[in-house]
Amino acid sequence: MPPRNTTELEGSRVRLDCEAAASPANITHQWFRNGVDVRLVPGLMSRAQIGSDGALVIARAVRDDTGWYRCRPTNGIGRPPDADAYLNVTCKWTVKPQWFDTLIA
Questions:
Q1: Mind listing the domains of the chain with CATH numbers?
Q2: Residue 94 contacts residue 12 (beta carbons within 8 Å)
Q3: What is the pLDDT along the chain (105 residues), one digit of tens a residue?
Q4: What is the pTM (predicted TM-score) of this model?
Q5: CB count in 10 Å sphere of residue 87
Q6: Which terminal residue of the chain, N or C, has fewer Cβ atoms less than 10 Å from its own Cβ?
Q7: How many CB atoms lie within 10 A of CB 90?
Q8: How far apart, in whole angstroms, are the C-alpha atoms of residue 2 and residue 19?
Q9: Are 18 and 56 within 8 A, CB to CB?
Q10: Helix spans in 1-105 (H)
Q11: Do residues 82 and 95 lie in contact, with contact meaning Cβ atoms separated by under 8 Å?
Q12: By C-alpha distance, which of 20, 36, 16 is closest to 80?
């Protein structure tokens, strides 16, 4: 099962699935964001982990997490397949009235 394009709010938990089957079944999963191994993306792996099922789970998404994610499952035999999905992290906007600044000044 490849990952799916996803839109989530900033601060929410994000799960990108990547299920694979192979023989032998000793599958490992490697994830990339915008072509860079996720383990090398500053700050990402302090909030994320790759599960034993291959899913990439980001505990608290931030806007900088937006981008293309690629899953590469492999058992070390043959050329591993790739599966891509786009993650869009949006933020809630809050509007404060102009008079608010005068209250805290």
A1: 6-104 (2.60.40.10)
A2: no
A3: 789 999 999 999 999 999 888 777 788 899 999 999 999 999 999 999 999 899 999 999 999 999 999 999 998 888 888 999 999 999 877 676 666 566 565
A4: 0.82
A5: 21
A6: C
A7: 13
A8: 7
A9: yes
A10: 99-104
A11: no
A12: 20
